[in-house]
Amino acid sequence: MSNKNNARCIGVLFSAFALAFSVQTAFAETSTKKAADWGVVIDKKKVTNVAAFIPYTANGTKMELIAIRASDGTIRTALNTCQVCYNSGRGFYKQEGDVFVCQNCGNRFKADQIEKIKGGCNPVPILSSDKTDLGDTIGISKSYLESVTPYFARWKK
């Protein structure tokens, strides 16, 4: 192999190493910077077809999130407050089997509809743009949770 080919191989190897190091460093910096920003972190292994009602307090406002594993195996998340009835203070849900019931108006809907329907008497979905898949967990930022406190201003659960 000529010196020119050796130099080219060393250059390619150095470039590959530099790229791998920069990707690893960028990921580490991103996850470290964002780790302090999570308001709620949901362990995916603990989410089942029985809803987890996760309490959280943002700026003194008590709220609750719903995490449930749908029949297709996906994890669905929402605020435990109704998009229509939230202002009543009783627009939250209770699970009855595979159905959720609004405690204000009595609307019933299947668990598989959580996060899929926006609008109407359904829980406020926490969309993929509002949460981050962290591998074994799902992170929901403090800033997002603070932004949805108006839905819980009159909450009486």
Write the CATH architecture name of the largest domain.
3-layer Sandwich
Strand portion: 25-35%
H-E string: HEEEEEEEEEEH
Which structural class is indicated by helix and strand composition?
alpha+beta
Task: Predict the CATH topology of the largest domain.
Answer: Rieske Iron-sulfur Protein
Helix content: 10-25%
Mean pLDDT comes to 82
Strand order of the largest sheet: 2-3-4-8
Total DSSP E strands = 10
Alpha carbon gyration radius: 22 Å
Number of domains: 2
**Separation of the first and last Cα atoms:** 76 Å
Low-confidence stretches: 9-33
Please provide a written account of the structure.
It is a single chain. The protein is an alpha+beta fold. It folds into two domains: 1-36; 38-152, Rieske Iron-sulfur Protein (3-layer Sandwich). 25% of the residues lie in helices and 32% in strands. The protein has two helices and ten strands. The chain has a four-stranded antiparallel sheet with strand order 2-3-4-8. It has a three-stranded antiparallel sheet with strand order 1-10-9. A three-stranded antiparallel sheet has the order 5-6-7, with no helix packed on it. Mean pLDDT is 82; it is low at 9-33. Pfam families: FtrD-like. InterPro entries: FtrD-like. It comes from Teretinema zuelzerae. Keywords: Signal.
Name some characteristics of this structure.
single chain, 157 residues, alpha+beta, Rieske Iron-sulfur Protein, 4-stranded antiparallel β-sheet, 3-stranded antiparallel β-sheet, 10 strands, 25% helix, globular
